[in-house]
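@channel sequence for tomorrow's demo:
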Amino acid sequence: MADTTPDWLASALGNSSAKHGKLVAARLGSQGVLGKGGFALSSAAFDNGEELDPCFTADEEDSVAPPLEWTSPPPGTQEVVLVVEDPDAPGEEPFCHWLVWGLPGQKGKILEGEAPPRVGKNSFGNSEWLLPDPPTGADPHDYVFQLFALDLPLVLMPGASRKELEEAMQGHVIGLALLTGTYAREEGGDYDWEDEDEAE
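structure tokens (generated this afternoon):
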């Protein structure tokens, strides 16, 4: 497991720490695939490095996942995969908030609150968008949206773990796009981190 963040990833993320070296992008990505062919990820709800609106977090009722859209991936892309992780959470691994695959290998989007075709298990073991819920009073957490372009279609069934997804993607990433949202809480409920084990 990496204990430092690769230079190319640190540069892309800007305000990064050693914890960002444990993101899936650090293991499967490289300078050569980052933004390849202009591949980029964005959201109409927040700019890169900006705070997430509470309507996408555990601080509001009926919260949903934010909208996302991406440009055309590199030629040869067969499938697009999304992994969202919080590297600032306690624990050996980043907290996994969303695993999405089965997305067509072309320009596309996920609408606000949309249920994607195939979703894997987040760190609470549920196949859904895990609402950001950082500890009260903590520094803002990063929620890193990592979009991978693959040169083959995955055959994983819904409900797969991050480990299973990462293993299936190994050696097949030909493009990578990144987008970071942040969130901090002054008051409200926290995850009981110690009682939750990552489902992998």
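heads up for whoever presents: The first strand starts at residue 41 and ends at 42.
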